[in-house]
Queue: 3 jobs
Job 1
Amino acid sequence: MKTAEQNEAARQIDVKYVAQLARIALSGDEKALFQKQLEKIVSYVNDISTVDVSGVQPAANSTAEQNVLRPDEPHTGLDQETVLKNAPVNDGRQFIVPKIV
């Protein structure tokens, strides 16, 4: 159940000020609508804060997976000649690219 303090916290959110910070022009109807929506959001957050989580262990991840990456194993790469075949321009040792200043 909502307490008077929780309802007051929701009412203290100044929609006009928040809209000004976001540089959004709101009509009077929009301000009233958003105020009601913000009150519902704050009420929902307050409801969540009443849930008993005393037996729940803190978790950094939602799954028990630790490392899902493959092992880092060295292997031979492509030889220089094969790589340079993909270059539009090369000098036989390296790629030639336009100078960028």
Job 2
Amino acid sequence: MIFRTATSEDRLQLANLRWAHENDLRDLHGYDKDKFLEEFCRFLDSTDGQRFTIWVAEDKGRIVSNVFLLLIRKVPKPHRLYSQIGYITNVQTVTEYRNQGIGTLLMKHIQEWAKEQSVELLFLWPSQRAVPFYVRLGFTQKNEIMECVFE
């Protein structure tokens, strides 16, 4: 198993992995897969001032797990001129590779990298099912995040 950051050559694999993950959660009948794949690849190519670092686990050339990480620079403070936090999203592992420790190893790799980059904290919004996974990795729910949702 190889753990690495994704390259532009991985876009289509990542898009198909996302489609498969969403298809596991809900019926995608009636949605245009080709249109989705095109938009997903366009999203990965766009900068919009922000860029995700995408970490992958690869087995024999196939991406079997991925994690998207967005580093957000915080406003400088007199006592800390440079600080950043990391938002983790789109954590998924191909069904037949689940429960083999791959996601755990990938997340531990990311946590070590984040420490080396002086990331202050990592945060995410897990599904209820995923909470025990993140607790085992040292995440806690002691910080209350407030949100204002626009629908």
Job 3
Amino acid sequence: MPRLTRIYTGKGDQGTTSLVGGRRVAKDSLRVNAYGSVDELNSQIGLAISLGLHEDLVRILKTVQNDLFHLGADLATQEEDKQRVRVPQIEPRHVDALEQVIERFTTELGPLENFILPGGSPGAAALHVARTACRRAERECIALSRAEPIGAHVLAYLNRLSDALFMMARYENHAHGVSDAYWDSRA
């Protein structure tokens, strides 16, 4: 585990930052945008947890938050540097765990009959915001992957996580007795 002895270094004052492995890049590079969005997503999940989510969701989301640090390290390390610098990475087991969450809540809640509107209880609304942050992080990782290689399981993880967050928002509403609000396409 890294030991952070200093929070600021002043090295980024000119608009660059260091990737794991030492290479300096612009703070608005595709790679930094991608892992910055993952960091924002993690914060959104932390906010949702702080709203008093159902304990089953808190347990799952604490694991997801840790996994998102793995994802951030994965993205902050160029693929060619992963040979010499060991960093946690997203693996198939992380994707599988999210699929199990989605399947569990799909079984418990039943299939959707229509698109639902984001909202409901405060916790569910926060999970919907986290879901949209996850979708943005996924889009930014796709853009990065077109420019340079990224971890093999990054995109699948983010794709499953957004679906899992959607199902968790539905579950949070259900746990609080709040019905899904369906989209009225004729309105």
